[in-house]
Amino acid sequence: MAPAPALEAAFKKDEKALCFHHELMYEAKIIEVSSREEAEKNNGYQYKVHYKGWKNTWDDWVEEDRLRKLTQENRELANSLRQQVLELQRAQRAQAAVPAKKKVQSSTRGSEERQTPAQAAPPRGQKRMRDQDLEKVSVASDMPEETFTNRRAVRILMPDRLKSILVDDWENVTKQLQLVSLPAKYPASVILDQYFAYAAAPGQRSNAEADILQEVIHGLKEYFNKALGRLLLYRFEREQFFDIYTQISSPTGELAGKAVADIYGGEHLLRLFVSMSELIAQTNMDVQAVNRLREELGAMTHWLQKEPQVTKFFSSTYESPGTAYIEKVKTST
Known about the structure:
The protein has 333 residues and is α+β, with helices and mostly antiparallel strands. It has helices spanning 72-97, 100-106, 117-120, 126-137, 145-150, 160-175, 188-199, 207-231, 238-249, 266-281, 287-304, 309-313, 323-331, and strands at 16-21, 24-35, 45-51, 60-63, 67-69.
């Protein structure tokens, strides 16, 4: 049998691309392509890149998974990552500038005064109030404030449009005592699958890149299924969850045997993204894997904030569960 033809390099010599250097992407030019027969991943290719505007001493050999095609979508992602890093740096400087005495005082006031990077340098007016409200949306655990400070390097920041959805979601559930209708028209698993179809479309990624993204999508579904009942629900939603879980556990019925990722939708998926920083911090993932996951989540939230996704995947209306449900919640606390 004749040997299978070698896979073609995803990038050509002299092609311009975007290349990851640590957490950010920079425009670069492929100045050399090398095939490695022994390497199986990344199709066996390495690329020597020259970063635009950088000295030649920064030229570097990189694997294919650090490169992205120079498309408008990827340019927007690069800008989004840069803004997130700048926001994170501002938050860290603000945290470092807080006097020790003020830290002690603030730690006694409850979780509502814990600052997030989004709060460290808030815009004026209504936007500022919404960023403060977003802290109440966080489904973070009861870890000490110092733990959050030490682990901020893995924080995943939300685009403003998705922040607004999270705040509205929190207000609808906790203040208006309303619930999203379940099962969702577009459950979390469907949203994740549609993102994969978009991001791994022909010409978007190499086979190796698509395989990595598929692993990320699978992992997010697993996280969602395991975290929803423990971390992603407000108290008012728990009776609804118990009812859903009963139907899942039943041998018959519309929801029998389903996973919660096939039932709960976009709002709860966003809550998972908010809590991913703490979930990641409790794993043994290395820095490279964490950065890769953060990159994929950044690209995903960037896609979700756009039309038609943002209108399609998030509930525009919430439902009142009725007096009997509300009374049941009150008596169960």
